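ok so i was messing around last nite and threw this chain in just to see what happens. nothing serious, just curious
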Amino acid sequence: MLVNGRPPEIFALYAFLAAAVIAWALVPLTERLARRINAMDIPNERSLHSMPTPKLGGLAMLAGVLVAGALFLPWAPVTRAILAGAALIAAVGVADDVFDLPPAIKLVGQIAAAMIPVFNGVNVANFTLPFVGSVNLAHVLLHNVPVLGKVSVGQVLCVVGFVAVMNVINFIDGVDGLAAGVCVISAVTLSIIAVSLERPGAAVLAAFTGGAALGFLRHGFPPASSFMGDTGSNLLGYLLAAVAVLGSLKTNAVVALFFPLCVLAVPILDSGFVIAKRIKHRRPIYMADRSHFHHRMANIGFSQRRTLAYLYGWAMVLAGLALALRFVPYSDNHGHFDAVWTAVIAVVGAAAVAASVYLLLALEILKLRLSRFRELVGLGVPVSGPEEVDAGVARELETGTFPTVDPETGEFAAVERVPEGERGRNQPQSPSGTGSADFGQDR
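result:
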């Protein structure tokens, strides 16, 4: 029952459970469908799995989303627009999972899906910036756009934001359970924040997004029996973008923009790192490679479950920072700060920074550099300096191989590194070719 046209807060819990149960129950059916229509993920040179796996699990999540949305959100134009956009982006994902669409076609589909909610009220007209004050985006940017009419700056930026979030979630969907788990953490956090901001509709939307991801995760956790495919990753990114706009950005709070950026920091940083590297090496940003965090962790010997543990933990630390910023009373919102609570925020922020530095530097690069140096010295191999070790480490992280030294000859041989937990298992042979587009399943 709605209260003044708004769902009660308990509906968020009901929606979470409903979406989780529906998605969990329907994934086996999507697996059968995927096998029947040959929507299978075949291992390639970038894959961390070794067996062909069905990849339409996102359809089960879509079912959970649509049912929970219809049951627990008011049947208003905004709700209908969000669910219609969800159905469209899932349809684009299914087409890509089956036919491997060109990147440009997928991008057009993402833009079309984003426009449905954005031009039906899911957009930001104004917001507040520190030291700047209120920024109004409602003024008209373009006149007489076919079909759309007048288009504002805020609407254009929101479409761009939707597409960006779809792709950052898509980018991290390269190891069993990573995208789904990170989205559960992010969605639950955003739901709690939305409740605190008295935005129950956004809270329900976030809740059933997290529930659908959790229901799929039962089948997608390694060793996965099903992949969500483009169908699921684009759907989750689309829904999280809608939650971010409705749940926090459509407020005038100074810290509102920081909430979604902090909660989604792991996929954002991963995508930013990968795109920067592709630009640096003059490769198309949509061309998939093995530069993602999960690939780099596999290259230094992490199993899929260990990779998930580290990346889930990182996401939870950053989500904790967002929650602390929302609930710790460090300020009275009038420029006056409480010393004790500000110190608490500083400690939480320092922990988040430390976790990020550890994962980005110490774990992934410095640890490998130190271990290689010790190996070379222990084998009696002359090393001219740290630059030589650094160059070798860079080659290892790029190619996924590590050098061994024959003690009798002193010569190096490149050996493929096999992630722990998968040693002794048959590894897929790397087919010839240049890879596939990253505006799609990044496996």
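not much to say yet. The beta strands are 40-41, 53-54, 126-129, 133-136, 140-145, 149-152, 401-405, 412-416.
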